[in-house]
Amino acid sequence: MDATPPESKPGPVQLCIGECKPELRTRSSQLYSFVMPSVLGLSPSRGPESGGTKVTIMGENLGAGSSVTVLFGNQTCEFYGSGMLLRCWAD
């Protein structure tokens, strides 16, 4: 299975099963666009190694995608927020 989003312009998504022959593909009726998340800042810029610091991540499109993960090193940071602001506690 292959799903190819259009470049950066909103448009339908084409879905192919196996080869992308006309009889094996379909197009969505809704328009989708792909956005890249970007981090613009972190606050605070540092904290104790023992963890427990509440970290605010500012950016754009931070909630893009179906699976968003925040990591500090290899430690997952549970978070809440929106597309422009995430807050989590570093362990």
Automatic annotation (TrEMBL):
InterPro entries: Ig-like_fold (IPR013783), Ig_E-set (IPR014756), IPT_dom (IPR002909), Plexin (IPR031148). One of its GO terms (molecular function) is semaphorin receptor activity. Residues 37-79 form the IPT/TIG domain. GO terms for cellular component: plasma membrane; semaphorin receptor complex. GO terms for biological process: nervous system development; regulation of cell migration. It comes from the Eukaryota. Transmembrane segments: none annotated. This is IPT/TIG domain-containing protein. It comes from Albula glossodonta (roundjaw bonefish).
